[in-house]
């Protein structure tokens, strides 16, 4: 199953979203991202003059995890023309049997959870809250 089959992610385009932070917590894995919202998403707004898409700061959450298995990790970061730094994109996110396989420039991870991933749109300025 592809991530776009999950109702919470149906109106998000992860391949052009930017990963800002990855945090492993007890029973959870959280990606802080600048999510690309499609026109069907309720928080969609027309892109700004210097934007290709409508971006929204969000947490992509995997909860009730029974295991988080890192296949690879890469300490990479990218800086855009405005000086903002990110870890790259989520190139692939698919459900395989009992886990989600997620990969990008930052690495590859298998997340074992019975629950579907959740997307929480953050209020402006709250994408870098500490955990």
Give a structural overview:
The chain is an all-beta fold and 131 residues long. The protein has one domain. It has strands at residues 12-25, 28-37, 54-63, 67-73, 78-79, 85-86, 92-96, 99-104, 107-112, 118-121. A four-stranded antiparallel sheet has the order 1-2-3-10, with no helix packed on it. A hairpin with a 2-residue loop joins strand 1 (12-25) and strand 2. The termini are far apart.
In short, what is this structure?
With 131 residues, the protein is mainly beta. It contains no helices and ten strands. The C terminus is likely disordered.
**Physical arrangement of strands within the biggest beta sheet:** 1-2-3-10
Helical stretch tally: 0
Given as residue ranges, the uncertain stretches (5+ residues, pLDDT < 50) are: 125-131
Helix content: under 10%
Using only CA atoms, what is the Rg? 14 Å
Mean pLDDT, to the nearest integer, reads 90
Structural class: mainly beta
Report the major sheet: 4 strands, antiparallel
**Cα separation of the termini:** 30 Å
Strand content: over 45%
- Please provide the ordered H/E string of secondary-structure elements: EEEEEEEEEE
How do the strands and helices of this protein lay out in sequence?
Blueprint: E1 12-25, E2 28-37, E3 54-63, E4 67-73, E5 78-79, E6 85-86, E7 92-96, E8 99-104, E9 107-112, E10 118-121
Name a few traits of the molecule:
four-stranded antiparallel sheet; mainly beta; globular; 10 strands; 50% strand
């Amino acid at each position: 199953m592809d991530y776009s089959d999950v109702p919470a992610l149906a109106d998000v385009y992860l391949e052009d979203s930017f990963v800002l932070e990855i945090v492993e917590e007890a029973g959870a894995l959280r990606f802080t991202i600048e999510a690309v919202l499609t026109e069907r998403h309720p928080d969609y707004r027309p892109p700004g003059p210097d934007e290709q898409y409508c971006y929204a700061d969000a947490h992509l959450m995997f909860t009730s995890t029974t295991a988080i298995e890192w296949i690879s990790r890469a300490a990479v970061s990218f800086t855009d023309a405005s000086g903002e730094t990110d870890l790259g994109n989520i190139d692939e996110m698919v459900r395989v049997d009992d886990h989600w396989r997620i990969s990008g420039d930052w690495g590859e991870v298998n997340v074992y959870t019975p629950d579907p991933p959740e997307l929480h749109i953050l209020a402006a300025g709250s994408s870098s809250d500490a955990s």
